[in-house]
Design goal:
Order of helices and strands of chain B: HHHHHHHHHHHHHHHHHHHHHHHH
Helix content of chain B: 55-70%
Radius of gyration of chain B: 24 Å
Strand content of chain A: under 5%
Structural class of chain A: mainly alpha
Shape of chain B: globular
Largest interface: A-B, 19 and 28 residues
Distance between the termini of chain B: 56 Å
Order of helices and strands of chain A: HHH
Number of helices of chain B: 24
Oligomer: heterodimer
Radius of gyration of chain A: 12 Å
Largest sheet of chain A: none
Strand content of chain B: under 5%
Amino acid sequence: MDKIREKIRDYVESLAQERGHMESVIDDESLIVSGILDSFAVMRLVVFMEKSFGINFAETYFDHNRFDSISSMVEMVKELAAS
Amino acid sequence: MLTKKGKFTLVPQLDRYPWLVEFAQTIVGRLVVLAIFSGLIFFFWPLWGHYIGLCLFFCIFLPQYRHVILVVASLGAVFLGRTYMEWNFINDLGYTYGISRPLIDSPFTTISIVGFVLLCFFLIFHFSKSSRSGFRIRRPILTIIAGYLLLAFGIPHLPVHDYVKLGLWIFLIVFSKYFWFLCYSLLDRNDPKVPPFPQHLGLYYPFWYVSVLPYYRGISHFQRIIAKSPEELAICRLKGLKLLIWACYLSMASLLIGTVFYGKGQDISGIIKFLLEANGGPLNIYFQNKLIYVIDKWPLLLNLPHYKYAFAQSVSGTPLAFYWNWLALIVWFIGQLLILATISHAGIAICRMAGYNALRNVYNPLKSKSIADFWNRMYFYYKELLVNVFYYPTFLNLFKNRPILRYYAATMAAACVGNFFYHYLLKVNMIVRQGAFETMISMHSLMFYCFLLGNGIFLSQYRKLKTGRSGRKLPQPFRAIIVLGFYCLIGIFWDDNVPLIDNLKFFLALFNITIGGNG
């Protein structure tokens, strides 16, 4: 499960850096509320998760608020992968 | 004002002084901050400054009841007439259907009409929850879009009594004004943390900003930006005050641009004109018309041709010299950006003052690195709305095996189709008067604008999507000039009150090319 977290963190940090946020991202740090990531970045995260974890978001309830922190993303990936 | 590190900032960093944050938590501190804030707000919304100040007073001193205050304030604004509604238009419509007296004759009538529409919204919201076992609306947003278009195109052809048609038109008019608020409620319908529907009403035309565009990113998201502790609240309010000070600077810049470039007798900007000339405008009250007198005494400065004048000249076939057209266009474009930034900053400042950590709508547009980036920085809440309503559903459901096409379809769904539909809804009066199809056709220039914008946004991301890397990086000033230039040029076609050909004439006149004309 730590692999999931690491993968997501690496990708989130690369997205945050593209947007000028150079510090490392903490697991529970709010990403969307604070404006570090925007909705375009969320879509890139969707593609990343589809490819990396085989998740099909079209078949689930898509809640972009769950992309707000690394922790909530990890939790979501676990849930969706299990279902 | 100097910060701790001694760096000069135009707007004092109020939220970073510990003593000030501490002071702003006390009763006296809260009153002082509110008094300064309300004084400044009066310059932006002179007629509603008292109402906003009163709502803020309750939010500041009873922060635990903010969700109730918002609902009361929002419905109170409808009652008092502070909405985007054009009730006079509905009265006129009544006359054309043979009703001899005004339909909207009291605030109770407006509340009844709005109440009925909101009740319908509640039913749509209720029947679209995924937890329902019986009848359920599976794609509620698509349903309301289809429903809206069906009504708009269908009402004139319905074989029903004229009064029924009139009722349906009134429903459609009010529906269109609340459309995007309902969309956000529906997007969050399955979120377990989202509050009950009546609380959503506090965000339907919230007291801080009267616009058909919701200045938040959904009900659920709004719950997450609430400042809770006394310290968080104090910092949030000081950030609001800071933003309002910045908005004041921008409005002064508008005044300066208007005066320097256009001199006296020209429409320097909507805001300043309103402040100076509107009945009861605060500058008029304070200076008893002397300020206008002083401005009129200022010498004619550059006295550049206004955009409207340059445009009219090119349409009539006698365009001004191309460099005047460029100047008129650029100054007009900057003026538009300043107005948007000023007004949206003031709105967000009130929201922060009420204790919600909302992000700005306009954020450093001159630092834009691409066309998509500018859209995000300049029209943040508008972009968020279109992304949530149009981009996400398209992206998640279509062309999943063709990545580039997937991004293209989603971008066009938001920036082109959604963007056009948003403006189409704004034209509801024209839909009622002239017909849904005729309105759509009359907006062909805007259609062209949306097409250009959608493609521009997609192309600006294309290289990164294709290779995962950005292209060769130009220095930021050049990038900003290219991006701003793009928006400045396509902005010509945004005006949907004139035919595309006229907009095209002005566009070509920028390059010293003249076509057609009456001259």
